[in-house]
Specification:
heterotrimer; A alpha/beta (about 250); B mainly alpha (about 280); C mainly alpha (about 260); A: about 250 residues; alpha/beta; six-stranded mixed β-sheet; four-stranded antiparallel β-sheet; 8 helices; 10 strands; about 35% helix; about 25% strand; globular; C: about 260 residues; mainly alpha
Chain lengths: ~250, ~280, ~260
């Protein structure tokens, strides 16, 4: 089956504002390919370029050169986002809306009929365990609840590809477990999940393949098991080896 | 025991307030403090007079039912107040034929004129002249020394609203704020004469007005000769009506030097003298 | 269209869940009612000054609601990062601009309608006959004028970084147009070149919002304008609104989020 998500020599450069014009490369010829039905982990230290890559895939920023495709459609076309769901790292939603209103709004954006939207909203609120709070304004929600409503809005259109940016950030262990369960469930349904995370433990548990980037460049990509076997260590050690981390000796 | 910060705050506020009142009473000059309950005076002090002028102009705008030139539309020689507020134009037809705006200069001007009021009317042509009164009242409140607000309002209260009681009350308020003002006394006399038909009171008020006018210095007299003319002529008419020809002649002779039509006054004097002769 | 309708719905919900509209309405109603209780010279038939005062408050309030609501739409979405989950959906930046515009315009229209209903009730109690056609025209033209104001503010919201700066500048520009826009040709004539040409250019370029002010007609009991003029003014306002919306989109599509 063809790649659901693909980048070809993707480059993004930022021009820094100041007296001297400096060009900072955020992504350097990134080539990624994610197949349908797999759970793909996108790893890297802070500032590696993960969020930049996701922003390009979502059409927030244009690439400096290269191309990116979702379902074979150039990401610059809005139709490319018809079948995706996105959970941002920082979960901010309209605080003056209730959970139900927020989901209904996004359902309308996707063109879901009233009946379809009602059914979907009920299912999702049950899935993320926010049924009891569906009529409350989002400004009254805790961080965990906001993360869960974020997940619900990412799933409102029953997407074939889910892009999650640090999905378990700020969640307690119970919350993280629930997110892992949802990801597993989506995988069982044949959905594709592309997520970036710093939680290597859960990446190891749920991901089929991972890519590790550092300083804008792709360092490695492969099956989790294969990488661990190759380096003879757990995923954390593999990650540290690949990014070239040298532990300082304590004297 | 630790004092609650709210108690300390309350205590400080009480101390400050007490100090302010004490010091203010001890060292302050009551004359400096505005005694008025007028919000404009409290907020703006003497600046409220600017509002008075604007309120007076608003009365004129209302008199013209919104047909009024802006500062930019005013033609050369046109005054700020277009003189029809008193409704005393001699030739009303001509006044309402005056076009304040002139011909449109471009398509924007032309199209825009469709939306504004573009018919010159005066409120005295209907029974709606009372609509100008709130602005005159506000003008008087913000500048009690603006005499024309009292006289103009009184005129409309008498002629259009037919409420001489309110007119009298307003004129008396004007007199309280401007003791002995001739213009207000003149209007008050008209009210007694035309509305109450109280000739005695009218005569008394006009007599006082004339005395006040004559007591002014020469410079002030030069500025308002018309007042002397009006007062004297009105007194002369009263005396003529009562058959007191000598008194009437006396008043006409006072009016003659200040009148714009001394020949007409002289004719009246001659007529009165003939009456005196024929009575004898 | 679904997307634009959905976006407008969110803007309308925001307006009636914030306090601004209620505060302004209560203020307008209170001031009008207090003014109405006052009797000048004990005459209960004096009504025009109340209408004038009420209409002035309605105009000021409508401008405040329009500008304040619109100025915060896009900047607050960016600040609160709600723009990301929104644009991650199949929503174009043009749809976002249009959705925000429609929402702000409809929300302002609803607020304006409430104000005019209050105005009708407050003055109808003293007036002998209602003049509904001129009331409707006054409401319609003001609402249509606000579409231009909202479009200008939306453009400002993608040009200026702070909503407060945008609000201030928009108020100054709109007030300038309302007070001086129709007189710039006269002002131009009183100046020498090249200032005269500059002022004339501004005169022909700016939207003449003063056309849409029917307060004098409403207050002083005149009839409405011809329906043809009303229609032409509507088209004029729509043309300017679309122009500013297009400019907004051109700026917004190049802006980083």
């Amino acid at each position: 089956m063809g790649a659901i998500l693909q980048t070809e020599n993707l480059c993004v450069e930022y021009r820094t504002r100041g007296l001297r014009l400096e060009i900072k490369p955020a992504l350097k010829e990134l080539n990624l390919s994610v197949c349908a039905g797999e759970v793909f982990g996108f790893l890297g230290p802070n500032g590696a370029g993960k969020t930049t890559a996701i922003n390009v895939l979502l059409g927030f920023i244009p690439p400096t050169s290269g191309a990116a495709y979702l379902f074979g459609i150039d990401v610059r076309r809005p139709i490319a986002r018809q079948r995706i769901g996105y959970l941002p790292e920082m979960t901010y939603y309209y605080k003056f809306l209730t959970a139900e209103e927020l989901l209904r709004f996004y359902a309308r954006v996707f063109g879901l009929s009233r009946l379809e939207a009602d059914k979907r909203i009920d299912q999702l609120l049950k899935l993320v365990e926010l049924e009891h709070a569906r009529q409350r304004l989002i400004k009254t929600y805790s961080k965990g609840m906001q993360q869960r409503i974020g997940l619900a809005q990412a799933l409102i259109n029953d997407p074939d590809l889910l892009i999650l940016d640090e999905p378990t950030s700020g969640l307690d262990p119970l919350g993280r477990m629930k997110v892992r369960e949802i990801i597993q469930r989506l995988k069982n349904e044949g959905k594709t999940v592309f997520f970036s995370s710093h939680e290597l433990g859960e990446v190891e548990t749920v991901c089929d393949r991972v890519a590790i980037i550092n300083q804008g460049g792709l360092k490695t990509v492969g099956r989790v098991g294969d990488l661990m076997a190759q380096h003879g260590a757990n995923l954390e050690k593999v990650f540290l080896d690949i990014i070239g981390y040298q532990p300082q000796s304590v004297t | 025991m630790k004092a609650s910060p709210y108690w300390i705050l309350a205590l400080l506020i009480a101390v400050c307030f007490t100090l302010a009142v004490t010091l203010g009473l001890r060292f302050g000059d009551p004359a400096e403090h505005p005694q008025s309950n007028n919000a404009f005076k409290l907020l703006f002090g003497e600046g409220q007079k600017l509002f008075a002028n604007q309120f007076y102009v608003m009365a004129d705008v209302y008199f013209h039912s919104g047909y009024y030139p802006s500062v930019f539309d005013k033609q050369e020689g046109q005054s700020d107040v277009l003189g029809a507020v008193h409704g005393k134009s001699d030739n009303d037809e001509d006044t309402t034929n005056v076009d304040f705006f002139g011909a449109p200069t471009d398509w924007i001007n032309r199209f825009g004129s469709h939306f504004r009021v573009n018919q010159h009317t005066h409120l005295d042509q209907g029974a709606e002249a009372q609509e100008i009164l709130p602005w005159l009242k506000l003008a008087a409140d913000t500048n009690p020394q603006m005499i024309q607000t009292y006289t103009v309002a009184a005129y409309w209260l008498r002629k259009s609203v037919r409420n001489p009681k309110e007119a009298e009350a307003f004129l008396r308020e004007g007199l309280r704020n401007n003791p002995g003002n001739c213009e207000i006394l003149l209007e008050l006399g008209r009210l007694y004469n035309e509305d109450y038909h109280d000739v005695v009171r009218a005569r008394n008020v006009w007599t006082v007005a004339l005395q006040r006018w004559q007591a002014q210095n020469d410079d002030a007299k030069k500025d308002n000769k018309w007042l002397c003319d009006e007062i004297s002529v009105n007194l002369a008419y009263l005396e003529e009506s009562a058959g007191n020809w000598q008194q009437a002649i006396r008043y006409l002779e006072i009016a003659k030097p200040v009148s714009p039509t001394p020949d007409a006054i002289q004719k009246q004097i001659d007529e009165a003298k003939r009456k005196v002769t024929s009575d004898k | 269209m679904n997307t634009i309708r959905a976006l407008s719905g969110v803007v309308i919900k925001e307006l009636y869940r914030r306090k601004d509209f209620y505060v302004l309405f209560i203020l307008t109603a209170l001031i009008t009612l207090v003014a109405g209780m006052h009797r000048f010279f004990n005459d209960p038939n004096i009504v025009r000054y109340i209408k004038d005062l009420c209409m002035l408050l309605v105009w000021v309030s409508a401008l405040v609601i329009a500008i304040a609501t619109t100025a915060r739409q896009i900047p607050v979405e960016r600040e609160n990062r709600t723009i990301f989950p929104l644009l991650a959906k199949p929503v174009t930046r043009w749809q976002m601009v249009l959705g925000k515009f429609m929402g702000s315009w409809l929300a302002t229209g609803v607020a304006l309608l409430v104000f005019y209903i209050f105005f009708g009730i407050a003055t109808g109690s003293r007036e002998e006959a209602s003049k509904w056609p001129v009331y409707f025209q006054a409401f319609w033209l003001q609402w249509v004028m606000l579409s231009v104001v909202i479009a200008i503010t939306l453009l400002g919201s993608v040009v200026f970084s702070a909503p407060s700066a945008n609000v201030t500048i928009c108020f100054i520009v709109i007030a300038g147009i309302l007070f001086f826009g129709g007189h710039l040709n006269v002002i131009a004539l009183r100046n020498a070149e090249p200032v005269q040409s500059v002022i004339y250019t501004i005169y022909y370029l700016i939207p003449h919002l003063e056309w849409f002010d029917l307060r004098d007609r409403l207050v002083h009991g005149w009839g409405g304008v011809s329906w043809l003029d009303c229609g032409l003014a509507t088209l004029y306002a729509m043309a300017y609104a679309w122009l500013f919306l297009l400019l907004t989109w051109l700026v917004f599509r190049r802006k980083s989020l």
